[in-house]
Here is the input.
Amino acid sequence: MPAASPGILTAIILAMARAIGETMAVQMVIGNSPRFPGSLITPTSTLTSDIVMEMGNTPFGSTWNNGLFMMSFILLIIALILIILVRTAVRRGAAR
Here is the structure.
């Protein structure tokens, strides 16, 4: 188990990054309903699905358009953090 833990951790982090990036699949699965979920099985929306659905309908430079770009920036930061975590886990696994 100790030898496999870096690989398992890397797989979990990559799965999270892939789930964030799978915009259309996530949108179809969760129902794309813009409300706060009451439980794990109620429909809701994600940052990626909001960006996909709203980006074409907002005027450039508006507050909502700027909000969509900020949501995109947040997703970029999350992806960067996940990539750093994967690289750290791989280095730790190689050092053992």
The mean pLDDT is 78. The CA atoms of residues 55 and 65 lie 7 Å apart.
